[in-house]
Amino acid sequence: MAVHEHPHRSSELHLPLFRRTHSAAESDLSAVSHTHTIGAYALASLRLLTGFVFLWAFLDKTFGFGYATASGTGWVDGGSPTNGFLSSVAAGPMESTFHSLAGHAWADWLFMLGLLGIGVALIAGVALRLAAAAGTVMMALMWMAEWPPAKHLSDGSASMSTNPFVDYHLIYAVVLIALAAFSAGNTLGLGRLWARLPFVSGRRWLR
Fold it and tell me: Are 132 and 50 in contact (CB under 8 A)?
């Protein structure tokens, strides 16, 4: 009697255990998928917001909407997008270099095309690697123009720097790199379609 009951007891013990394990695995997979989806949408939202930062800067400097650029002083009105910022650089080893670049037409065009290109790329979700490279260079130059390490400006007044290294330019640069690294254009963007284009598919640096 005991010999015949042993397999029966073993089956009763293991069958529910197998079902619980299987159910737990499905639950874990569902949780991972859900987390991945949330992460993808979070990165897409970050991409769109960052893109709007660049695109708005281009539009405001072009048309003078009265925010950072006063009305009537926009690029279309004959104003220089770089003159105000570069001519006001007052600290750092490249102070005189930035002063000499302020207001030059080629500098204005490079700066504005950079803002427009990065903004459009981020919002559309395409060419994020190019946008990250161009944006990182731009942010690095603007960081040098701000020069957070300085405690005092060239005239001796306090710089009011809140951190000797990290400022929003570095944050933007890291954000751009992260968006490109995680293919943030695939969600709420044209990233997948862009990657399938013939002139892009064989050139990973264009993605």
Answer: no
User: The whole model's pTM is what?
Assistant: 0.84
Q: How many residues does the chain have?
A: 207
Instruction: Judge contact between 141 and 131, C-beta under 8 A.
Output: no
User: 139: buried, middle or exposed (CB in 10 Å: 19+, 13-18, 0-12)?
Assistant: buried
Quote the distance between the C-alpha of residue 34 and its chain's center.
23
Tens of pLDDT, residue by residue over 26-77, are 666 666 666 789 999 999 999 999 999 999 999 999 999 999 999 999 999 9
Amino acid at position 107, single letter? A
Residue 196 has pLDDT above 90, yes or no: yes
Q: Which residues of 95-113 are buried (b: 16+ CB within 10 A; e: fewer)?
A: beebeebbbeeebbeebbe
